[in-house]
Amino acid sequence: MAVDRKAIQRILDYIEDNLKAEISVEELSDLAGFSLFHFYRLFQSAVGMPVMQYITRRRLLHGIHEISLGHKKIDVALSYGYETYAGFYKSFVREIGYTPKVYLKMYKAKKPYRINILQEEHIIMSQKKIRDILINWELENEKIADVVYGETGEISDSAKYVGEDYVIKFSANLGSIKKTIDISHALESIGLLAAQTIPTKDGKYYVEDAGLYYVLSKRIQGENIKVGSVYLDEYLEKARFIGEIVGQLSLALAKIDVVVDDMNILKNVCEWAIPALNEKVVIDKSFLESYQRRFRELYDELPKQIIHRDPNPSNIITNDDKWGFIDFDLSECSVRIYDPCYAASAILSESFELDNPDKLKKWIEIFREIMYGYDAVAKLTESEKEAIPYVLLANQFIATSWFADKDKYKDIYEVNVSMTEWMIDHFENLKI
């Protein structure tokens, strides 16, 4: 079924601008220029859930954000069309999977970004669809809840919690799903704590339905590392610990035999990211020339292997004396020091304050301890030690370029522009 994405995007924009008004499907189908039946089908095909459920979800997410800002619960509920706060409460539990109180205690209620299906694919999965898929594991009666990243308030658009023990992930990319399964099995085989993938009742490790692929994993019990806590007491010891466990992960990934894509970070940064940031980021021309020249000289000497690719704090789980990593769907073969560099830059990205020099100075100490911890376990070569600031900045160039021109990430993009300029200004301080 061909989908007029521009027409659906106009409807999404209209919905977003009128969430506090009464909206009918008949009104929306007329605006889109389709029959009612055809509009229902087109909307669900493009967005992933029925139109009225989508409207309900958007109202709930905006409502919980307003409540987090101190607005009265009853006023928020009434403004979004509920007759009572109890009605809002029940709807929130049914759709999001948490009570409002628990949600606000556990997570930051971030202002919802505007959905733009013209800029990127969005998978907005209904609970009914998830329950239908969970029949394959005989878990269709389990509680389903959103996966929310606590400190940022971001809601995953590719995973849901299933009960207390499982998480189901979904993607249109079969290669990504297979990679998650293969790496999980490989890490488990060498004794590393990983999110164990669970076979269906028919013995399959993923389910295909209508162009999407689903995989169920056992949740690693424990807590994600919180960026805010890294800066508190014993911050150097915490940073050292992060470096050491990322180093242990590197050693484990070097032992497994899994097919992944190659990623040439040098090519990506020099041929794509830097040109894309031209006139968007203030970069001294002589610095840029020197940076690219030396990075090219170092690159071939850097050890390369399978890496996690996204070891941000929310993907590191700790539980007493145990630890593990989740979300290997981005894993690829690249320079191995990418992972500790990414872990350090992710901490900075989630806590960056340009007008707080003391905090930035503390981050440099944290960054160094992560690298020292990694070196203590994985033994950096001399070329790797010299290349650390080059890889750190390369990742920053690439991330900033990727966030550019995406409405969803406007705030993150602006932070990363400032971060990139700050890293360039303090490049000498990033040398180990």
TrEMBL record:
A UniProt-annotated Pfam family: APH
Organism of provenance: Roseburia intestinalis
UniProt xrefs under PROSITE patterns: HTH_ARAC_FAMILY_2
Domain HTH araC/xylS-type: 9-106
Record GO terms (molecular function): DNA-binding transcription factor activity; sequence-specific DNA binding
Signal peptide stretch: none
UniProt keyword annotations, A-Z: DNA-binding, Transcription, Transcription regulation
Domain of life: Bacteria
Protein name, as recorded: Helix-turn-helix domain-containing protein
UniProt-listed SUPFAM superfamilies: Homeodomain-like, Protein kinase-like (PK-like)
